Amino acid sequence: MTNKKNTFLSNNRKRLLFTVSAFLLLYLVAYILDPFSAQWYGFFERSPLRMFRELGTSLVICLAISESAITISNILNKYIQWTSRPLTRLILETGLNLVLVLIINLLVSAWCLYGDPEIANYVPSPEEQRGFIQWVIVSIIISFMIMGINIGNYLISNWKNEVIRVSELNQLATESELQSLKLQLDPHFVFNNLSVLSELILEDQQLGYAYAENFSKIYRYMLVNAKKDLIPLEEELKFLDSYMFLIENRFGSGVHFNINVHPEAKAMGMPPLTIQMLVENALKHNRTNKKEPLTIDIYDQEGTALIVANNLLPIERTIDSSGIGLRNILRRYHLLSQQEPKIAADQQSFKVIVPLIKI
Predict the structure, then answer these.
(1) Could you tell me whether strands 255-260 and 294-301 are parallel, antiparallel, or unpaired per DSSP bridges?
(2) Which residues contact 177 (CB under 8 A, 6 or more apart)?
(3) Which of 296, 236, 242, 297 is nearest to 266 (CA)?
């Protein structure tokens, strides 16, 4: 109901604006075309009734022209769109406006000349006939001006609506893509940990229970934060404790962690599971053994970025990779922030610099 009321008020304001603008333009254009016309001399010396009649007649003409232009435009919008058949629409709307302006002027002139019994046999002078022709020409010009304004308003409104529609579609697509990225999980992570869990249960039930507890904490964390775009770094680091427990039982002393994050950085945010994916990526592509352990360093860069670095211990055989980890992180940052992660690698180390986002 409110939308209909707003639309009604908006249409009425537009009609009033068109009528007033047409009324002012009618006299302005008429004066510009012929400033020395007899109608301008002694205008205010006429009787109030005659002035009122002339101004009222002009207002009626302007109202009729405005309404006809708006009505023609509204009707044609239903059948011939500017976007599909612009030339046909232009010719048809121009022709209809021209015909209606001529009809309006003829009807008003007939009413003015023959509606009053005192001037029923009145014959207009050549000067008055010239003034009438000029008035018709001015009316046509005003009609085309109103038509142009109406067309411009229609096209701008359609353009704005299209921009809003495309923006909404892009936003929906972005949200959909972001949601799918949040739900992605490297299958290697699942299979490897389930395999370790089954072995531990057979060898050491107490350790297997602890492993299962930490494994469930990780999945609980994933479920709770799956719909979040960002999460505080402090929570990511707490989650990392459970994840490190799994890694220590999978690889023993073949993996070392060095974590040094300042308190001010912990209040900043990042996409959930970012650290886990980076650590899993390091484990996937490097050897892990006691004599030459894989070292993973996690530290912040002046509170603005988190760095996850590891020494390079390339495995001899190539393993199948889903490519979810790094691609997922890069894509999520592209959707969430103007800053994107940077990758720095040389012969000794591999480093990912992840921007921290204020939340």
Answers:
(1) parallel
(2) 331, 335
(3) 236
pTM above 0.70, yes or no: no
- Please give the sequence-ordered ranges of beta strands (E in DSSP) within 189-284, or none if there are none: 231-232, 255-260, 269-270
**Cα distance between residue 94 and residue 89, in whole Å:** 8
Are both 278 and 162 inside the same structural domain?
no
**212 and 177 part of one domain:** no
Residue 22 near residue 142 (C-beta atoms within 8 A): yes
Q: Are residues 147 and 198 in the same domain?
A: no
More confident residue, 1 or 53: 53
pLDDT tens by residue, 37-55? 655 555 666 667 767 777 7
Q: Does residue 106 come out as left (phi exceeding 0), alpha (psi in the -120 to 50 range) or beta? A: alpha
Residue 173 burial class via C-beta count within 10 angstroms: exposed 0-12, middle 13-18, buried 19 and up: exposed
Q: Do the Cβ atoms of 249 and 196 come closer than 8 Å?
A: yes
Beta bridge partners of 55: none
Pair 201, 341 in one domain = yes
Domain boundary among 122, 154, 181: 181
- 116 and 194 housed in the same domain: no
How many domains does the structure of the chain reveal? Answer: 2
The rounded distance, in Å, linking the Cα atoms of 38 and 28 is: 15
Domain end residue (candidates: 128, 148, 181): 181
pLDDT in tens, 84-129: 788 888 888 888 888 888 887 777 666 665 555 555 455 555 655 6
Residues 66 and 211 in one domain: no
DSSP string, 60-101: HHHHHHHHHHHHHHHHHHHHS-TTT-HHHHHHHHHHHHHHHH
Please check whether residues 51 and 25 belong to one and the same domain. yes
Do residues 169 and 301 share a domain?
no
Q: Which domain holds residue 93?
A: 2-181
